[in-house]
Amino acid sequence: MNFRGYFSILFIVTILCSYPLSANAEEKEENIYDKRMALYKKTEAITEVPWYYIAAVDQYERQIYKDIEEDQVISIRIPPEIWYGAGNTSMDINSIGIFNGKGKDGNGDHRADPNNGEDALYTMASIIKEYGHSEEDFKIALWNYYKRDLTVQTIKNTALVFKKFNHINLTDRDFPVAINYNYSYRNTWGDRRGFGGNRIHEGTDIFAGYGTPVHSTTYGVVELKGWNLYGGWRIGIRDIFNIYHYYAHLSGYEDNIKVGQIVKPGDVLGSVGSTGYGPPGTSGKFPPHLHYGMYKDNGYSEWSFDPYPYLRKWERMAKNKN
Length: 322
What we know:
Layout: H1 3-15, H2 23-47, H3 51-64, H4 80-83, H5 117-129, H6 135-146, H7 149-165, E1 183-185, E2 192-193, E3 199-200, E4 204-208, E5 213-215, E6 220-228, E7 232-239, E8 243-253, E9 262-263, E10 268-272, E11 289-297, E12 302-305, H8 308-321
Antiparallel strand pairs: 1-4, 2-3, 4-11, 5-10, 6-7, 6-9, 7-8, 8-10, 8-11, 11-12
C-alpha cells in the first residue's frame, strides 16, 4: 500500500466516530445526546457552572480517547493523582479528603468513583467552580487543568457554539462550495507539492470559477483569517470534534467574517480564487480552486487527514436538501 493510501485509511478510521453514518446510528446518538444533556443540566443545577462549559469539556475528552465505547454517555477522565489526591498511593476512595483529592460523589451512592460518568462530571464541574463562573475564570480553570493553549481554546470555542445553538446534537454538514455552481474535484490528499520545498498536499482541491461562494462545512468558531504564503487568503475554523477546517486560495472574504465568529454549516465565508505562493496579494499562479483541508487534534498533537470521503458525503447531503 502506498503512503497516501495507508495514511488515508488510518486517519479515516480515527475520525469515523465523529459523524453518524446511518439512520440507526443517528437514532442511537440522538438518545445519547438527550442523556448527556440531562446530566449536564443536572450538574449545572447543583454546581451553578453553565451546562455548556461542562458539555464542552466532556466533548473535548470524547475526542482524545481511542477506547470510548459507542454508548458511553460521559467521557471525562480525571487523573488518579487529582481524583484521589497526591500521595494517596492506595487510591482509597474513603481517604480522598485526607489527601485533598478532588473526587466527588455525583450520583448519590456515597462513593466517589472515577469510573462513574456522573461522578466524573460532577467532579470536573466542581474543579471549574473553584475558579469562578465567568468566561475568563473558565479559561483559567482549563489552563490549570490541561496546561495547553490549544486545548483551552478548543474547549472555550466549543462552549460558545453549544451556548449559541442551545444544543449539543450539531451533526449537520454542508459542502464547502456552492453546489449550484460548476465545480470538480478528486482525491488529491497526499500528492507531492513542490512550492516551498518537498511536501505533501494536505487537502482536497475543488476547482471552480472565480467568485464561487465558499461555505462553512460545520459548526465551529473562526480561529484564523488572513494571508498565508502557501494558502493565500485563507480561513481556519475549529469545530466541536477537535477538527480544524482549512479553506485556502480565497479571492476574498464575506464582509462580516472575523476571528472568533461562530459559524454554522452553509454560512458563506468568502469566494473561490487563486491567491497564494507569494507575498500578500499574489494571485493567478494556478487555476482558481478551493484548497480544503482537515486536521485532527488528539490533545497532544495535530495532523492532517484525508477530507475526500467526507466531502463526498457532504456533497450528497447538500444535494438532498435542494
